[in-house]
Design goal:
The protein is of the alpha/beta class and 720 residues long. Helix content is 44%, strand content 19%. The strands form 5 sheets. Strands 2-1-3-4-5 form a 5-stranded parallel sheet, with helices on both faces. The protein has a 5-stranded antiparallel sheet with strand order 7-6-10-9-8, with helices on both faces. The protein has 5 domains: 146 residues, 3-Layer(aba) Sandwich (Rossmann fold), CATH 3.40.50.2300; 103 residues, Beta-Lactamase (2-Layer Sandwich); 112 residues, no CATH class; 163 residues, 2-Layer Sandwich (Heat Shock Protein 90), CATH 3.30.565.10; 112 residues, Response regulator (Rossmann fold, 3-Layer(aba) Sandwich). It comes from Rhizobium johnstonii (strain DSM 114642 / LMG 32736 / 3841). InterPro entries: CheY-like_superfamily, HATPase_C_sf, HATPase_dom, His_kinase_dom, HisK_dim/P_dom, HisK_dim/P_sf, PAS, PAS-assoc_C. This is histidine kinase. GO terms for molecular function: phosphorelay sensor kinase activity.
């Protein structure tokens, strides 16, 4: 058994062999070794069964050795394999594996599951081919195990985020009314982590004056599918009074039947106490003002105004703090999710090349890729809200930009809506990212379309405003891009929540609630603001206030320089501290025909560069512990000034003052994007790269008049 332990710890794929008759054992071990596996020879069937484990890559048996044996231990292990595992077996037989010639083969197939019968006599290359095919399948299973573990890590991070935000999670199955609640959720209702808490328990704990409203809102959510959101009083078992805020969404099956409610809750007692104290203080101050007004002259009227300003400032401060906290959490989650999507997309793209000819497998891979790309689009919206997206800010003629989108806007809103534009030709340019502003304008137009189901008028106008400086905008000149509709409008309560992330007036599944949040984040990132005004039955006006500039827009080049093709085979140094991302990127690079050397930190990469090894190109992640990708690039260029480099990043987190000429590769990227950035980097000595804020790698194509993307966006959608 000591010898077996040494083989298991060798790190080489292992084949477990039970071939007791004649030279079978020697032959099998020789062929297994030729196929690239370490071999473990079992002396009897009991040892074979006890040696089975997840570390075994292949099992080899002879049919005559197990024909009349007790296979229950083996069958028990096979059936108990984890979901990712399906251990392959090779059975050496003299009668083939078909039921017409070898009825016993059916019994072995049922016990072993993933089995290949190899009829004697066979050529050595046949065995080696079958063994290598089985090994490839097993290695894919190990990759699946690693991805499952990565998803589990993502779930743990989500739980950590919930704990950090002191949010309790809960689910309610509607068919049985069975409630599952986290320990934090139980604590918010005054219960201990080990207490059994039912739906009826929580309903009974609601203050009697609030209970009917809570039940009515729950029924409304179940009947209409609208998001559940409420704040109510809760009485704990010790009799103390608390405030609880609850949000939930309804999940339905594929037939549209409501299945369960999933939500979060938080204890808002402290906030409510502060608000109540402020309310009482304000009432006291107002009462004193009213009393003194009777005795003093009109000069004291300015004191009502001071109280109102303080209330507005307090409300703006609370809103700003809330949005900032949510933005930081959202940006971090989106960045980590981008890394997971990088692994998923890279492996799916490579897997698609290996299933050619299998229509069903190709369809499944394509479906998975489409789902992952939708996830990537969602992360871009989250980063836009968190104000962590990479912007290419330049002077832009807004009148020209709006005019160029005329055809696209008309197709997006439909023939029942007329579009009016007021675009003065004498306005100065604005400092904006043209691509992101086009997406924002398209989002506003589609939102306006949805607010006018029976048709109406969409008005787009531009004007210049001078601002003396306030809490939202700095002093200076601004261009105001206004989008107005004649639709249903919003009441004051809805308007107050309009830019909150994930808030939507649309039914479940019709919008993400990130559209206005994304536009708000873009406006703030551009040192501007988004202002909304609305009235029920009249319509809504959305105004984007954008900084004006005296600089003139850049003239487009007459002809874009062609991107030279890279050499057929390059030696590339890939630097990434995430093992899964590194593995996926290496696979894509090697599939492109390049030689790849891996480094899992900036320090290790610098050692390789300093050692005298020749590298044609370095591709490095930006966010790494110890040494960032930008620091690595600077140090590498001190050693080899002409070494081409590409910087990969999940979002634009380069600190202020970072000034380095590097193409940017936005995660998640596919093989085509990777190849394009390699070609651009290899051409950098002949075609100078722009600074990190310019059009170098990572820039997104602008919308063209021929693109029809109205079906891909809606409340909260954006195009990448």
């Amino acid at each position: 058994m000591a010898g077996i332990a040494a083989i298991l710890n060798s790190g080489k794929p292992k084949a477990l062999i039970y071939t007791p008759a004649g030279r079978d054992a020697w032959v099998a071990r020789s062929l297994v070794d030729e196929a690239g596996l370490a071999s473990i020879a079992a002396t009897d069937l009991s040892m074979f069964a006890s040696s089975l484990s997840d570390d075994i890559a292949l099992g080899v048996l002879t049919e005559e050795a197990v024909r009349s044996s007790d296979l229950k231990p083996i069958a028990a292990w096979v059936s108990a394999q984890p979901s990712w595992s399906d251990l392959p077996f090779i059975v050496l037989t003299t009668r083939g594996g078909g039921p017409e010639r070898n009825p016993a083969a059916a019994r072995l197939s049922e016990v072993l599951g993933n089995v290949t019968f190899l009829e004697r006599p066979f050529h050595a290359t046949s065995f080696i081919s079958v063994a290598r095919t089985a090994l490839k399948g097993r290695l894919r299973q190990y990759e699946a195990q690693a991805r499952l573990e990565a998803l589990g890590e993502g779930e743990r991070r989500l739980q950590t985020a919930l704990a950090a935000g002191r949010l309790g999670a809960w689910e309610l199955e509607l068919s049985s009314m069975a409630l599952s609640a986290s320990a934090t959720c139980k604590a918010i209702f005054g219960r201990k982590p080990d207490d059994d808490v039912t739906r009826d328990d929580l309903i009974e704990s609601i203050h009697p004056d609030d209970r009917d409203l809570v039940l009515a809102r729950l029924r409304q959510t179940i009947d209409t599918g609208r998001d559940y959101s409420i704040e109510h009083r809760t009485i704990w078992p010790d009799g103390s009074l608390h405030w609880t805020e609850v949000h939930a969404q309804l999940y339905s099956d594929r037939y549209g039947s409501a299945r369960k409610l999933v939500g979060v809750c938080s204890d808002t007692t402290v906030r409510k106490t502060i608000e109540e104290n402020l309310r009482r203080l304000n009432e006291t101050l107002e009462e004193r003002v009213r009393e003194r007004t009777k005795e003093v002259n009109a000069a004291h009227q300015t004191l009502l105004e001071e109280v109102a300003q303080r209330e507005r400032a307090e409300e703006q401060l609370r809103q700003s703090q809330k949005m900032e906290a949510i933005g930081q959490l959202t940006g971090g989650v989106a960045h980590d999710f981008n890394n997971l999507l990088m692994v998923v997309l890279g492996n799916l793209e490579l897997l698609g090349k290996h299933v050619g000819g299998d229509a069903k497998a190709t369809r499944l891979v394509d479906g998975a890729i489409q789902g992952a790309r939708r996830g990537a689009a969602l992360t871009q919206r989250l980063l836009a809200f968190a104000r962590q997206q990479d912007l290419q800010v330049k002077p832009v003629d807004l009148a020209e930009l709006v005019s160029g989108m005329n055809d696209l806007l008309r197709r997006s809103v439909g023939s029942s809506i007329s579009i009016e534009t007021i675009l003065p030709a004498t306005l100065p340019p604005a400092l904006v990212d043209a691509n992101q502003l086009e997406l924002a304008l398209l989002n506003l137009a589609v939102n306006a379309r949805d607010a006018m189901p029976d048709g109406g008028t969409l008005s787009i106008s531009l004007r210049k405003e001078q601002v003396a400086g306030n809490e939202a905008l700095g002093k200076g000149a601004y261009l105001v891009l206004a989008v107005a509709d004649s639709g249903t409008g919003m009441d004051a309560e809805t308007l107050k929540k309009a830019v909150d992330p994930f808030f939507s007036t649309k039914e479940l599944g019709k919008g993400t609630g990130l559209g206005l949040s994304m536009i708000h984040g873009l406006a703030v990132q551009l040192n501007g603001a988004l202002r909304l005004t609305s009235e029920l039955g009249v319509g809504t006006i959305a105004e984007l206030w954008l900084p004006a500039t005296e600089r003139r827009p850049e003239q487009p080049a007459e002809a874009e320089l062609p991107v030279p093709q890279a050499a057929s085979r390059l030696k590339i140094l890939l630097v990434d501290d995430d093992a899964l991302i590194a593995m996926s990127s290496v696979d894509m690079l090697e599939d492109l025909g390049h030689e790849v050397v891996e480094a899992n930190s900036g320090a290790q990469a610098l050692e390789l560069i300093s050692s005298g090894q020749h590298f044609d190109l370095v591709i490095t992640d930006y966010s790494m512990p110890g040494m960032t990708g930008a620091q690595l690039a600077q140090a590498a260029r001190d050693i080899h000034p002409g070494l081409p480099m590409v910087l990969a990043t999940g979002y634009a987190d380069l600190p202020a003052g970072t000034d380095i000429d590097l193409p940017r590769l936005a995660k998640p990227y596919d093989q085509a994007q990777l190849a394009k950035e390699i070609a651009k980097a290899m051409a950098s000595e002949k075609v100078p790269l722009l600074r990190s804020g310019g059009d170098a790698g990572g820039s997104k194509p602008r919308l063209s008049k021929g693109d029809d993307v109205s079906d891909e966006i809606g409340d909260g959608a954006c195009v990448v």
